[in-house]
Amino acid sequence: MAGKKKQNSTLLILFFVVIFVVGLMLILMQFNSLNEGKARLAEEEQLLALAQTRLQSMIQLKEQSDEMEEKLELLTQLLPGSPAEDDLIVDLQSGADLSDMGLFQIRFGERVSKEGYQEMPLNLVFEGSYHEILHLLDYLNAYERAIRVDELRLDPPRAESAKMSVNLRASAFYAAK
User: Residue 32, Cα to own-chain centre: how many angstroms?
Assistant: First the structure.
């Protein structure tokens, strides 16, 4: 009977050791699952923060869409669909007349193709006073077509005239087809 008690106590101890090891393994598995869950949660939180940032950007873009559409409409007006050289000449002459300047020469350069538009170089020769030149530049700044002044050269007045010669190198633009 003593041997049977010893065997039972050994089995009991073995049983508790096995239960302890199994319990320890279950705790380790739960701990690993907890760590994996925390890692997934951190990853999901990062993805959520990224999605919220993208959402904020989209909301800002949506709020700016009306303003952008207005700017697009304005830019579309600044870039006519064709070169319209004859209209440009008439408008430049009108600008010179409004500024009390003489327009003596207009030369069109070779067109330059850009992405979405064409650049039409111009060489212009005017004659006028300093203040008249400023009025002409104001006219070009407010002109309903996109014009960029690249170079402005003033030559002193000749003896017979009190007006300066103004050589203007500029570019007008129109939409590419």
Answer: 47
State the Rg of the chain over Cα: 41
The residues, any chain, with a CB within 8 Å of residue 63's CB and separated by 6 or more, are none
Which DSSP helix (H) or strand (E) runs through 108?
strand 102-108
Structure token digits, residue 161: 């005239």
Decide: 119 and 173 in contact? Cβ < 8 Å. Answer: yes
What does the block give as tokens for 28? 């380790």
3-state helix, strand, coil in the chain (%, to 5): 60, 25, 15
Q: Give the pLDDT mean for 108-132.
A: 90
Helix axes 130-142, 85-98, angle to 10 degrees: 140
Q: Are 143 and 91 in contact (CB under 8 A)?
A: yes
Residues in a beta bridge with 149: 170
Q: Report, as an integer, the average pLDDT of 155-165.
A: 79
pTM listed for this prediction: 0.57
Q: Which two tokens stand for residue 1?
A: 């009977």
> Can you tell me the distance from the alpha carbon of 37 to that of 32, in angstroms, rounded to the nearest whole number?
8
